[in-house]
Design goal:
By secondary structure, the chain is α+β, with helices and mostly antiparallel strands. The protein has five helices and eleven strands; from the N terminus they run αααβββββαββββαββ. The longest helix has 26 residues. GO terms for molecular function: aspartic-type endopeptidase activity.
Amino acid sequence: MDMTTDQMMRGVYLLVLLVLVGSALLARRVPWRGAMGMVLAWVAIFAGVLILFSFRNELGFVANRVRNEVAGKPDQKVSGQSLRIAPGADGHYWVEAQINGTTARFLIDSGATVTALSEETAMAAGLNIDRLAPPMMMNTANGTITAQRSSIAMLTLGPISASDLPVAVSASFGGVNVIGMNLLSRLSSWRVENGEMILTP
Protein backbone atom coordinates (compact mmCIF):
# COMPACT_ATOMS: atom_id res chain seq x y z
CA MET A 1 0.00 0.00 0.00
CA ASP A 2 1.55 3.36 -1.06
CA MET A 3 1.46 6.54 1.03
CA THR A 4 -1.46 8.14 -0.93
CA THR A 5 -3.69 5.11 -0.59
CA ASP A 6 -2.78 4.81 3.09
CA GLN A 7 -3.74 8.43 3.73
CA MET A 8 -7.04 7.97 1.86
CA MET A 9 -7.88 4.92 3.99
CA ARG A 10 -7.18 6.88 7.16
CA GLY A 11 -9.47 9.65 5.96
CA VAL A 12 -12.23 7.16 5.23
CA TYR A 13 -11.84 5.61 8.68
CA LEU A 14 -12.06 9.03 10.32
CA LEU A 15 -15.15 9.99 8.30
CA VAL A 16 -16.88 6.70 9.17
CA LEU A 17 -16.07 7.23 12.84
CA LEU A 18 -17.47 10.76 12.83
CA VAL A 19 -20.65 9.62 11.06
CA LEU A 20 -21.16 6.78 13.56
CA VAL A 21 -20.54 9.00 16.58
CA GLY A 22 -22.73 11.78 15.18
CA SER A 23 -25.55 9.38 14.43
CA ALA A 24 -25.40 7.94 17.93
CA LEU A 25 -25.51 11.41 19.49
CA LEU A 26 -28.45 12.53 17.34
CA ALA A 27 -30.35 9.39 18.20
CA ARG A 28 -29.84 10.09 21.92
CA ARG A 29 -30.56 13.85 21.48
CA VAL A 30 -27.48 14.87 23.43
CA PRO A 31 -27.11 18.69 23.96
CA TRP A 32 -24.91 20.41 21.37
CA ARG A 33 -22.08 21.30 23.79
CA GLY A 34 -21.96 17.81 25.25
CA ALA A 35 -22.12 16.31 21.78
CA MET A 36 -19.10 18.33 20.59
CA GLY A 37 -17.12 17.23 23.65
CA MET A 38 -17.91 13.59 22.97
CA VAL A 39 -17.00 13.93 19.28
CA LEU A 40 -13.67 15.53 20.14
CA ALA A 41 -12.97 12.81 22.71
CA TRP A 42 -13.67 10.09 20.15
CA VAL A 43 -11.53 11.85 17.54
CA ALA A 44 -8.64 12.01 20.04
CA ILE A 45 -9.01 8.32 20.87
CA PHE A 46 -9.12 7.40 17.18
CA ALA A 47 -6.08 9.58 16.41
CA GLY A 48 -4.13 7.91 19.22
CA VAL A 49 -4.99 4.42 17.98
CA LEU A 50 -4.11 5.47 14.42
CA ILE A 51 -0.71 6.80 15.51
CA LEU A 52 0.05 3.62 17.44
CA PHE A 53 -0.93 1.51 14.44
CA SER A 54 1.07 3.62 11.98
CA PHE A 55 4.25 3.45 14.05
CA ARG A 56 3.81 -0.10 15.37
CA ASN A 57 7.07 -1.31 13.78
CA GLU A 58 9.13 1.54 15.22
CA LEU A 59 7.48 1.19 18.64
CA GLY A 60 8.10 -2.55 18.55
CA PHE A 61 11.79 -1.98 17.85
CA VAL A 62 12.10 0.49 20.72
CA ALA A 63 10.23 -1.85 23.06
CA ASN A 64 12.53 -4.73 22.15
CA ARG A 65 15.61 -2.56 22.67
CA VAL A 66 14.39 -1.43 26.11
CA ARG A 67 13.44 -4.99 27.07
CA ASN A 68 16.88 -6.25 26.01
CA GLU A 69 18.64 -3.55 28.00
CA VAL A 70 16.59 -4.26 31.13
CA ALA A 71 17.03 -8.02 30.81
CA GLY A 72 20.71 -7.69 29.99
CA LYS A 73 20.13 -9.47 26.70
CA PRO A 74 22.67 -8.60 23.98
CA ASP A 75 21.51 -6.57 20.98
CA GLN A 76 22.50 -8.76 18.04
CA LYS A 77 21.06 -9.55 14.61
CA VAL A 78 21.91 -11.72 11.65
CA SER A 79 22.61 -9.78 8.45
CA GLY A 80 23.25 -12.05 5.49
CA GLN A 81 26.02 -14.39 6.57
CA SER A 82 27.26 -12.05 9.30
CA LEU A 83 26.34 -11.39 12.90
CA ARG A 84 26.06 -7.70 13.82
CA ILE A 85 26.36 -6.77 17.50
CA ALA A 86 25.57 -3.35 18.96
CA PRO A 87 27.55 -2.18 22.00
CA GLY A 88 25.91 -2.71 25.38
CA ALA A 89 25.15 0.01 27.92
CA ASP A 90 28.69 -0.45 29.28
CA GLY A 91 30.25 0.11 25.85
CA HIS A 92 31.38 -3.51 25.50
CA TYR A 93 30.20 -6.04 22.94
CA TRP A 94 28.06 -8.82 24.38
CA VAL A 95 26.62 -11.73 22.47
CA GLU A 96 24.23 -14.55 23.24
CA ALA A 97 25.52 -17.97 22.19
CA GLN A 98 24.67 -21.63 22.62
CA ILE A 99 27.10 -24.06 24.22
CA ASN A 100 26.05 -27.52 23.11
CA GLY A 101 22.51 -26.12 22.99
CA THR A 102 22.68 -24.27 26.34
CA THR A 103 22.28 -20.48 26.08
CA ALA A 104 24.93 -18.25 27.66
CA ARG A 105 25.95 -14.59 27.50
CA PHE A 106 29.50 -13.76 26.39
CA LEU A 107 31.71 -10.70 26.40
CA ILE A 108 33.74 -10.44 23.18
CA ASP A 109 37.33 -9.62 24.15
CA SER A 110 40.01 -9.50 21.44
CA GLY A 111 42.57 -9.10 24.20
CA ALA A 112 41.79 -12.56 25.57
CA THR A 113 43.86 -15.37 24.10
CA VAL A 114 41.42 -18.14 24.92
CA THR A 115 37.64 -18.36 25.29
CA ALA A 116 36.74 -18.57 28.97
CA LEU A 117 33.70 -19.78 30.89
CA SER A 118 32.55 -19.31 34.43
CA GLU A 119 32.32 -22.58 36.33
CA GLU A 120 28.56 -22.08 36.64
CA THR A 121 28.14 -21.83 32.85
CA ALA A 122 30.39 -24.82 32.22
CA MET A 123 28.42 -26.95 34.65
CA ALA A 124 25.07 -25.86 33.16
CA ALA A 125 26.34 -26.81 29.68
CA GLY A 126 27.53 -30.20 30.94
CA LEU A 127 31.18 -29.70 30.01
CA ASN A 128 33.83 -32.13 31.16
CA ILE A 129 36.43 -30.23 33.17
CA ASP A 130 39.89 -31.78 33.35
CA ARG A 131 40.59 -31.26 37.05
CA LEU A 132 43.59 -33.62 37.01
CA ALA A 133 45.58 -31.57 34.50
CA PRO A 134 47.85 -28.77 35.75
CA PRO A 135 45.83 -25.54 36.05
CA MET A 136 46.25 -22.68 33.59
CA MET A 137 47.58 -19.38 34.90
CA MET A 138 45.64 -16.46 33.41
CA ASN A 139 46.18 -12.73 33.72
CA THR A 140 42.92 -10.82 34.16
CA ALA A 141 41.88 -7.31 35.15
CA ASN A 142 41.59 -8.63 38.71
CA GLY A 143 45.04 -10.19 38.72
CA THR A 144 46.38 -13.66 38.02
CA ILE A 145 43.96 -16.54 38.48
CA THR A 146 44.00 -20.29 37.91
CA ALA A 147 41.67 -22.06 35.48
CA GLN A 148 40.97 -25.61 34.36
CA ARG A 149 40.94 -26.83 30.78
CA SER A 150 37.85 -28.01 28.92
CA SER A 151 36.43 -28.09 25.41
CA ILE A 152 33.13 -27.11 23.80
CA ALA A 153 31.86 -29.62 21.26
CA MET A 154 29.76 -26.95 19.48
CA LEU A 155 29.52 -23.22 20.13
CA THR A 156 26.95 -21.32 18.05
CA LEU A 157 26.53 -17.57 17.63
CA GLY A 158 23.80 -16.84 15.10
CA PRO A 159 25.20 -18.05 11.75
CA ILE A 160 28.59 -18.86 13.30
CA SER A 161 29.49 -22.32 14.58
CA ALA A 162 32.75 -23.51 16.13
CA SER A 163 33.43 -27.14 17.00
CA ASP A 164 35.94 -28.62 19.45
CA LEU A 165 36.79 -25.21 20.89
CA PRO A 166 39.29 -25.27 23.78
CA VAL A 167 38.17 -23.16 26.74
CA ALA A 168 39.33 -22.19 30.20
CA VAL A 169 36.96 -22.67 33.13
CA SER A 170 37.24 -20.93 36.49
CA ALA A 171 35.04 -19.86 39.40
CA SER A 172 37.20 -16.73 39.58
CA PHE A 173 35.70 -15.22 36.40
CA GLY A 174 32.85 -13.83 38.49
CA GLY A 175 30.11 -15.29 36.33
CA VAL A 176 31.43 -13.64 33.14
CA ASN A 177 32.00 -15.69 29.98
CA VAL A 178 34.49 -14.39 27.41
CA ILE A 179 34.95 -15.10 23.72
CA GLY A 180 38.65 -14.83 22.98
CA MET A 181 40.97 -14.89 20.00
CA ASN A 182 40.98 -18.67 19.67
CA LEU A 183 37.41 -18.29 18.35
CA LEU A 184 37.76 -14.93 16.59
CA SER A 185 40.78 -16.22 14.65
CA ARG A 186 38.59 -18.94 13.12
CA LEU A 187 36.35 -16.36 11.46
CA SER A 188 36.92 -15.09 7.93
CA SER A 189 36.66 -11.57 9.37
CA TRP A 190 35.67 -9.58 12.44
CA ARG A 191 35.62 -5.80 12.71
CA VAL A 192 33.89 -2.77 14.20
CA GLU A 193 31.98 -0.67 11.69
CA ASN A 194 29.76 2.34 12.51
CA GLY A 195 29.82 1.32 16.15
CA GLU A 196 28.71 -2.26 15.49
CA MET A 197 30.89 -5.35 15.73
CA ILE A 198 30.52 -7.56 12.67
CA LEU A 199 31.48 -11.25 12.81
CA THR A 200 31.61 -13.19 9.56
CA PRO A 201 32.18 -16.96 9.50
